[in-house]
């Protein structure tokens, strides 16, 4: 295991919306359209799809993208949003709201309002992660060289100041 090459850690972010007042079956129709797409293309698909569920899914996708940007900012890395893609997205069934509807002869019919939990995850493409890490390493190496040169110059100046002068003190 020690000899295995290290892979660049890709930035991954997840967002979820719980108790969305819509049937999971209707949301799955929209989720299936964006699964595996680039984040930018998924937003375009959601913008022009004629389904009511696209509003909720788009909101969750935008939140996942914002979470990825925040994660990269906290890690001190630069993230290009164009390299994000929808890695996982699914819909689970939420709690059901039991309701009653008046029926003839004083009876009541029971019906259920379904809710859903939407989960969308975005991840940075592995090639983009490798290039981002290589650029960060190159930047650190260039800064290391500059800092080393500055340090050497300061030491040289400090060495000149410490030499005793030829004038005797009175």
Walkthrough of the structure:
The structure is a single chain. It is built from 4 helices and 5 strands; from the N terminus they run E-H-H-H-E-E-E-E-H. The longest helix has 37 residues, at 126-162. It is elongated. The termini are far apart. It is α+β, with helices and mostly antiparallel strands. A 3-stranded antiparallel beta sheet has the order 1-5-2. The chain has helices spanning 24-34, 39-48, 54-75, 126-162; strands spanning 12-20, 84-93, 97-102, 108-113, 116-124. The protein folds into 2 domains: 12-124, Ribosomal Protein L22, Chain A (Alpha-Beta Complex); 126-160.
The CATH topology of the largest domain comes to Ribosomal Protein L22, Chain A
Mean pLDDT: 86
Distance between the termini: 71 Å
Count of all domains: 2
CATH architecture of the largest domain: Alpha-Beta Complex
Radius of gyration: 29 Å
**Number of continuous helical runs:** 4
Number of distinct beta strands: 5
How is the largest sheet built, in terms of strand order? 1-5-2
| Largest sheet, strands/sense/barrel | 3 strands, antiparallel
> How much helix, percentage-wise, in residues?
40-55%
The CATH class assignment of the largest domain is Alpha Beta
Bin the strand percentage: 15-25%
Uncertain runs are: none
Which class best fits the helix and strand makeup?
A: alpha+beta
Gross geometry: elongated
Order of H and E elements: EHHHEEEEH
